[in-house]
Structures are given as C-alpha cells and as structure tokens.
Write a structure and sequence with these properties.
Layout: E1 2-10, H1 15-18, H2 21-40, E2 44-46, E3 56-58, E4 64-66, E5 76-84, H3 87-94, E6 105-111
Antiparallel strand pairs: 1-5, 1-6, 2-5, 3-4
Length: about 120
C-alpha cells in the first residue's frame, strides 16, 4: 500500500466560533466514526490535525507575508494521511470524508513519495 495525504482546503474559517457546542460535538463524532472505520480497515495512517487560520507565507527571497483573509478559500485547514493501493482508491476514501459538511471545502489527494 501507498500513503496519501488528504489536504483540506477552504471552508468557513469561523465555523468553529459560530457553531453551538452540540453542533461541534456532532461534527467531531462524524470524524471519529470516519477515522474509526478507516482504522479498522488498516487505512488510517495518521488522523492529522486542523490548522490555525493565521499564518505566514515565505517566498524564495525570504519575504514573509501574513496570509490574508481574502485567501481563505485557498487556505489549507488541515490534513489526514491514509493508506491505499492506488490514487483512485484514495480518492474514493476522500469522497467519504466528513469535511464535506461545508460545501466550500475541497480535498487534495496527494501520494506521499517514499524517499
């Protein structure tokens, strides 16, 4: 099997603050269930973590700029790592991800190269 990183992009950066404790708990339950199913199948390598909305982008010149709010649609909000035989199989797993409660989210599926 190969490892694939799911890179979660976009979404509402304030969903956590806007959500009720019950909604947050329900969403976390969906993630726990999804990761549990993957773990049972030997497909969960790392559950990953959500990422803070703020950050700094550094370019080749060494210039560092804050990530602007206007760029939230492209902001990486988190990641997970799964094991699959092919990118097609990993893509099918990604389609079941609970991140899609937000219609503005995309998931990149990228193979992790063994070095």
């Amino acid at each position: 099997m190969k490892n694939f990183m799911f890179i979660y992009e976009g979404g509402d950066p304030d969903w956590h603050a806007k959500s009720s404790p019950e909604d947050l708990q329900a969403q976390m339950a969906k993630w726990e269930e999804w990761m549990g199913r993957l773990a049972e199948k030997g497909q969960l390598v790392a559950g990953g973590d959500p990422l803070h909305n703020g950050g700094v982008r550094v370019d080749v010149t060494g210039a560092a700029t804050d990530i602007a709010a206007a760029e939230f649609k492209d902001l990486v909000s988190g990641y997970s790592i799964v094991a699959a035989n092919t990118i097609q199989e990993a893509t099918e797993i990604a389609k079941t991800c609970p991140i899609f409660f937000d219609t503005a989210v995309k998931v990149q599926v990228r193979e992790i190269l063994a070095m």
